[in-house]
Amino acid sequence: MDRRKQESYEIHGHKVAPGTQEVVRLPVGVFRNHAQVELDVAVAHGRKPGPTVLLTACVHGDEINGVETIRRVLRASALKSLKGTVLAVPIVNVPAFLNRSRYLPDRRDLNRLFPGSAKGSLGARLANVLCDSLVARADLVIDLHTGALNRPNLPQLRVTARDEASMRLAKVFGAALTIVSPSREGSFRGHCFQQNKPILLFEGGEALRLEAQSIRTAYRGIFSVMRELGMLARRSRPEKFIGNMILSEKSYWIRAEVGGLFTPLVPLGAMIESGAEVGFIADPMGGVERKVVAPRQGMLIGRTNEGIADEGDALFHVALLSDMEDAQGKYEENLLGDAHPDEEHAVHYQQVDAR
């Protein structure tokens, strides 16, 4: 039995008592109208000692699935028995969120400005506060993203190559697919990797929409990882999705060879054989219909929902797999385990499903 005394969690001059949850506002800068720019952090501090997990969403201001996921995490009754601390930032990129935009007001991408600077642009200062005040305190970071507008992604994780700690936790998270990919210079994931902080980057759904499967998967995955870290009591039976991870180390895009009206023929999650017809592009004047063919086999993890395409537009994102048959079985088992993680949120899932 752990008899260590849990101290209050102190952040920016605020003390959060054990067994409580508070919102702390970290100052970032000043808007053009002299309003304060602040980073709102929900601190859920357990009654007993344990790891610190940082949850972030909306690094791109229009990616709102993660905002809703973190909101539900903070309302979950399971946090009453929490060991350790959850630091949650549902909206990292406040200026972009207020504009319903992916980018900062100066059109820069916040996810290329890390670790930022205390004396730089507004975006650089925002990145600096997140890194210095929160990442530095965390034992694990879970960063939630979506696809772009009209470009939904299958629920998936991105893990940096050689990051063994993150890969171990990815197996527990239970997304449909985990992609091993290099991190980009200036990205949040890249900064965490450089600081030896395990980070799971989750992608699911598309911008400016709440999508039920992605929210369910992220919510379920967060609590599964917290149980693995000893922050919550383990369940009597292992989750069905644990051990069903599909791994991919490379992906490719299928692009339009001509312009026209685009019709997709396969859903996200489909296993595609080499040479398979996955859609077609039609001449608006009633002329030729051009088949869109997959040059290589793999799993469909992203696509455009736009009904028109120009020559060269990205239509489908396909993950390459070493064993298609094995991946198909794991994906089907994963879907069977994609139930509501706790009954108190069932009505919320129903509401999202109905949209």
Automatic annotation (TrEMBL):
<keyword id="KW-0862">Zinc</keyword>
<keyword id="KW-0479">Metal-binding</keyword>
<dbReference type="InterPro" id="IPR055438">
    <property type="entry name" value="AstE_AspA_cat"/>
</dbReference>
<dbReference type="InterPro" id="IPR043795">
    <property type="entry name" value="N-alpha-Ac-DABA-like"/>
</dbReference>
<feature type="domain" description="Succinylglutamate desuccinylase/Aspartoacylase catalytic">
    <location>
        <begin position="49"/>
        <end position="228"/>
    </location>
</feature>
<dbReference type="Pfam" id="PF24827">
    <property type="entry name" value="AstE_AspA_cat"/>
</dbReference>
<keyword id="KW-0378">Hydrolase</keyword>
<protein>
    <submittedName>
        <fullName>Succinylglutamate desuccinylase/aspartoacylase family protein</fullName>
    </submittedName>
</protein>
<dbReference type="InterPro" id="IPR053138">
    <property type="entry name" value="N-alpha-Ac-DABA_deacetylase"/>
</dbReference>
